[in-house]
Amino acid sequence: MSYRILIIEDEESLRNTLKLNLELEQYNVSTCGDGKDSIESVKTFRPDLILLDIMMPTISGIDVYKELRDKGINTPIIFLTAKNNAQDKIEGLKLGADDYITKPFDLEELLLRINITLKRNTVKPSYSDVFKFGSCEINFLTFKIISIDGKEETLSKRELAFLKMLVDNLNNVVSRDAILDRLWTKDDNPSSRTIDNYILNFRKLFEINPKEPVHFLSLRGVGYKFCV
C-alpha cells in the first residue's frame, strides 16, 4: 500500500526537499504552497496524512486545521513550524493534532514520526462517529442527523449504512451494483429506483436546493458520489 501524504508548506525549497525524500520512501506525495488552496487540495488528493506548516501567508496552519475538522475531515495531521515555542506546541496538540515537529528537523526523525502516525491511524475510519459537513451532521452511533434546516431526525439502519458507504468513498463514485450488493439481499428485490429514492431523500435533508445538489450527485449509468 502506498500511503498518500499532502505537504502544505509555503517555503518552496523545503516543500520540494520533503517531496523528493518522501517519494524515495515510496510515498505518494502531493504539495500545496498556500493555506487558501489547501482545503481543495485535501478534497482532491484525499491524503492519508498531512504535513501542515503553521506559519503560512493568507491562512495559518491552525486555521486550516480548524476548517478541515469543521468539515468532518479527520485526516491525521503533523504540524511543522519554525517556531520553537512551547505555547505553539501546546495549542496545536490541544486542538487534536497527531504530532508536532519544529524546523529545522532531522529527516530521519520526521520519517519515524510519519510512520508511527500512519500505523496508529491505519485502523481508524476516515470519519469520526460524528461526521459534519457545512451545517449538517450525521451521527453514526445514534442514527440521528441534523438536516440543512437545523432539525434533528432519526434515520433507519439502512439509510445510515448507505450514508456511511458514501462517506467512506468521499468524492469517489460508488456504483449502483456495489450499493445493492452491500445494502440489500436478493430477497429484498431492490431496484435502481430504490436507490434513487434514498438519494432524493438525502437531498431533501442535506441540500440547500435539492434540485441542484452539490453533495449527493448522480452519474447516469454509473452510480453516485458524495462530495463536501
Poorly predicted tracts of residues: none
CATH homologous superfamily caption of the largest domain: Response regulator
Helical segment count: 8
Order of helices and strands: EHEHEHEHEHEEEEHEHHEE
Biggest sheet details? 5 strands, parallel
Shape: elongated
How would you summarize what this structure contains?
This protein has helices at 12-24, 35-45, 61-70, 86-95, 107-121, 157-168, 176-183, 192-206; strands at residues 4-8, 28-32, 49-53, 77-81, 99-102, 130-133, 136-139, 144-146, 152-154, 173-175, 216-219, 223-226. By secondary structure, it is an alpha/beta fold. It has two domains: 4-121, Rossmann fold (3-Layer(aba) Sandwich); 130-226, Arc Repressor Mutant, subunit A.
